[in-house]
Amino acid sequence: MSVFRVQNTLSRQLEEFRPLEAGHARMYTCGPTVYNFAHIGNFRAYVFEDLLRRWLKFKGFRVTQVMNLTDVDDKTIRDSQKAGQRLAEFTETYKKAFFEDIRTLNIDPAEHYPAATDHIPEMIAIIQKLVDRHFAYRSDDGSVYFSIARWPSYGKLAHLDREGMRSGVRIASDEYDKENVADFALWKAWDEKDGDVAWESPWGRGRPGWHIECSAMSQKYLGPSFDIHTGGVDNIFPHHEDEMAQSEAANGQPFATYWMHCAHLMVEGQKMSKSRGNFHTLRDVLGRGYSGREVRYELLATHYRAPLNFTFGSLDAARTALRRVDEFTARLADAAGGAKAGTLPGWAQAAAERFEAAMDEDLNVSAALAALFDGVREGNAVMDARLMSPEDAAAVRDLFRRWDGALGVLEKPAEAVPPEVQALLDRRQAARAAKEWKQSDALRDEISALGWIVKDTPKGQVAAKA
Ligand code: AMP
Ligand code: ZN
Fold this sequence. Notes:
45% of the residues lie in helices and 16% in strands. By secondary structure, it is α/β, with parallel strands linked by helices. The chain has 3 domains: 5-262, Rossmann fold; 306-407, Four Helix Bundle (Hemerythrin (Met), subunit A), CATH 1.20.120; 419-465. The strands form 5 sheets. Strands 5, 6, 7, 8 and 9 form a 5-stranded mixed sheet that branches. Strands 4-3-10-11 form a 4-stranded parallel sheet, sandwiched between helices. Strands 13-12-14 form a 3-stranded mixed sheet, with helices on one face. Helix 4 (120-132) packs across helix 5 and helix 10 packs antiparallel against helix 11 (365-384). The longest helix is centred in the last third of the chain and has 25 residues, at 312-336. It starts with a strand and ends with a strand. Residues 30, 214, 239, 243 line the site of zinc ion.
């Protein structure tokens, strides 16, 4: 079995993954800023992180993943005010939508989803430590800034040139570019733009900066040092640089060992983003008749470090690829019948080895999928020649199930029962409870006229697409 190697943004090198705690991978993922529906560019990052956690599990690691919810920052405050809602009420809508969307995309849930507003005391404690150690200072207006001059390794993640840094100059906003490297805000004194969003602190009323949120939530659930920190490449600077500086300065120990960043989902050569307005939410795409599974395939199938250009044409290609998989797995199931799995036939064993070696090389999913589709081609040829024994077919079916543990896209999800069919099912259940068998049969006919088959099992009615 080969070892898993990842491209570490910190070292700019491919490194073998070795967790701090044997057998246990601990990862932190910057989660959504809940001020809008996430767009499919954001989901490229979450699907990449899901692929990573699934691959770690495939390799036998226990995984603890933390994904935060940024429910207080410049953007959430600004847009809740525009909407005329209180911050918590406003962000609740988008938190709920986010969890619905990740289910649609078959993203496995993280172990923890902390919300920033539930962790203000933890943030204040880190800021206090930084002030006590003179890495941070209070400005005249009651804000607290991290002093980059006091931290010589500032810039090591984003590979900044220290010459150009303007220490002593302060930047209050959460997002800024490399031309504006400066002391950044840990705590922002209240001003009228914040409305009723404020907490008491040793420095006066105010609210946390965005970066300190992730330092506090990662430390609470993973400890001061953990294995992998992930996000999109736009997070490297300033967000991750600032997270790393303040966490390491406060704790005096390394923060994350490996930093992994995915490239952007692009639209006609530009990053898909809310501010550019060139985005599609997952809901828009589903509304055009594509499934969550097709979107997942599209986001997954390109190596995470290669930019991916989004078009509806590429979603059609995802549909075609998945249809090939479905035809093959249906054929395999027929060939396997009720047989027990034997050993993998040689061609499938070769595909299995290629798949694993590719994924082990920094999640090279495009090469892994090439191995998978070669397997489909060869498997079809073997079945065409009637040379697939039921035991072989069952073994190949099990291989696909194992692969799907890693990819989360091969198995066709059961189609959701539409409301009109559900209503008939409910009436039929009531009829059966009342022993009105004629009525029950009539309802079965109505259900079948809508293209659904109902079966009566010991656990009750089960409906499936005809
Ligand atoms: P945000 O809600 O803006 O904080 O972003 C959430 C996550 O989505 C972060 O990890 C970003 O790096 C990532 N992200 C934002 N836009 C894109 C994009 N176009 N392609 C890939 N990832 C993105
Ligand atoms: Zn973060």
